[in-house]
Amino acid sequence: RKHDEEQEALLRRKEKELRDQHEKETAAKQQIQAQQEAKAKEALRRKEDAKRLEAAKTEYVAKAQKLVQQLVAVRQSIEPFDNNKAVSKRRLGMKKIIRGKINTLSENAAKIQQVAAEVSQAISEARSEDESIKQALERGDAGYTADMARGKRYLVDLLASNTIQRVQAEGFNGPRGDGFPLANMLAMVSVENKELVPILAAHIYTVCPTAIPTLPVTAPNASEDEFMEGLGMIKGKNGEFESFDRFLTRTEVSELCCTI
User: Fold this and answer.
1) 115 with 105: CB under 8 angstroms?
2) What's the Cα-to-Cα distance from 43 to each of 35, 53, 132, 245, rounded to whole Å?
3) Which of 95, 143, 152, 201 has its CA 20 to 30 A from that of 80?
4) Left if phi > 0, otherwise alpha if psi is -120 to 50, otherwise beta: which for 234?
5) In this structure, what DSSP letter does residue 169 have?
6) What integer is the mean pLDDT of 54-81?
């Protein structure tokens, strides 16, 4: 009987040793598996971070290209307003503000503030009038069409396009430093009218792709003319491309306006 008890005790010890060994091996395997999973997660996280970092490097290019594409749609949407005889007086008033008041800009700070206030007021009035037209359309009043409620959009685009025309003029940004009063005025206007920023940026990127900034994407077999067009160089009335000095002068002013 004593022998049986000793054998039974020995058997229990061996079973316990086996269980302990199994538990240790299981714990070790679980630890190794956990370490492997942690390493895999860390590798995946680093890979995703690298992707996000790479995407962030070119994200601004995609945004700029999207703005240029959206500008095409915006300009198409205001064509009916531009051709509608019923709002001809509104258009005339807007042109007087944009082309007339901005012509009076100078390096005088008070003058810049005055012009900025008048332009902002014109945008505010256009927004208010558009809202009144929308309400009239909802009531079903006669004599109104949906395109007549795009005056503010038309005015903001007119301001941006007129700015581009100015900065591309031969005599712009001479000894008087025309770019600084204009950029200052636009910055003031954009504080109260956030919609100006993407529209102006889109106009700038359209005429000056290097303002994005990014190198032009051309085919490997692109001609010299295609490459120059990709840079944003423009042709004169004689069909010849502008000089490189002229190109630099014009695009520097565009970039100045872009920084506002």
Assistant:
1) yes
2) 12, 15, 58, 50
3) 201
4) beta
5) S
6) 88
| Distances 65 to 14, 139, 159, 250, 260 between C-alpha atoms, Å | 75, 39, 21, 21, 19
Are residues 119 and 98 in contact, defined by beta-carbon separation less than 8 angstroms?
yes
Inform me whether the pLDDT recorded for 13 exceeds 90. Answer: no
Single-letter amino acid, residue 42? E
What is the mean pLDDT of the segment spanning 133-154? 94
Q: Do 209 and 247 meet the contact criterion of CB atoms below 8 Å apart?
A: no
Q: Could you give the C-alpha distances from 173 to 90, 203, 225, 247, 254, in angstroms and in order? A: 31, 19, 27, 13, 11
Backbone φ, ψ for residue 235 (5° rounding): -95, 145
Q: Determine the pLDDT at residue 253.
A: 55
What does the alpha-carbon distance between residue 43 and residue 92 come to, in Å, rounded to a whole number? Answer: 63
Q: Which has the closest alpha carbon to 233: 255, 218, 221, 248?
A: 248
Amino acid identity, position 56:
A
Task: Compute the distance between CA of residue 105 and CA of residue 206 in angstroms, rounded to an integer.
Answer: 25
DSSP-assigned letters across all residues of 102-129: GGG--S-HHHHHHHHHHHHHHHHHHHHH
Task: For residues 174-193, give the mean pLDDT.
Answer: 81
Res 175: pLDDT: 46
> What is the C-alpha separation between 212 and 229, in angstroms, rounded?
15
Residue 177 clears pLDDT 70, i.e. is over it:
no
Question: What percentage of the chain reaches a pLDDT higher than 70?
Answer: 88
Query: What's the CA gap between 123 and 22, in Å, rounded?
Result: 79
